[in-house]
């Protein structure tokens, strides 16, 4: 019997910037559709390990959302991160280092709260690391483990893992190391959940029991013990929500 799923409204983007576009410019239409009539969003900038402060990172995100008529505030600007998430109309988690991001989400006691709010229908948007933590675990991130989080278990907003910035092997490359596909196959030796290889410019839109691949590219989907599969944006990949 098909299990009932809560009403979720999620946009998972591979990257915040594609070649030749500004920050979030390539996914503006999808962001507007996600937010609908909402006029504010809470930004979580925890993923940045250095080189840019939470304040500067938030200012960059704020500029992009203000251009869409959306007011953005940073979770670090609030007296209580928990209260900020409780009161948020929507949440956006940006990219950076996935290990650092997940550690900070645990440290600020936001894991269960974000799960609860999203299950209640609060829109969630992630890019890169923010997309990684929406999955079952962070076991398929490309990032270096610069810190050790409490657990590799992530927000589990979807029952699969994602590999943002998925790269295909270059046909004329002399590189002899593992490909992304090889590493995901290695992941599946010890882990059961599906993995979505999300190419740059691509995104997943989850609405209730439906999942849609958006953007200009196909996605490469990996199931344990089976050959990798390619799905085009027009294809139905909602089976991923019922995988395990």
UniProtKB/TrEMBL annotation:
The keyword Cell division does not apply. It comes from the Bacteria. The keyword Protease applies. One of its GO terms (biological process) is proteolysis. InterPro entries: Class_I_gatase-like (IPR029062), Peptidase_S51 (IPR005320). Signal peptide: none annotated. Its EC number is 3.4.13.21. Its main location: cytoplasm. GO terms for cellular component: cytoplasm. It is found in: Cytoplasm. Keywords: Cytoplasm, Dipeptidase, Hydrolase, Protease, Serine protease. It is an enzyme of class 3 (hydrolase). It catalyses: Dipeptidase E catalyzes the hydrolysis of dipeptides Asp-|-Xaa. It does not act on peptides with N-terminal Glu, Asn or Gln, nor does it cleave isoaspartyl peptides. GO terms for molecular function: dipeptidase activity; serine-type peptidase activity. Belongs to the peptidase S51 family. This is dipeptidase E. The lineage of its organism: Bacteria, Pseudomonadati, Bacteroidota, Cytophagia, Cytophagales.
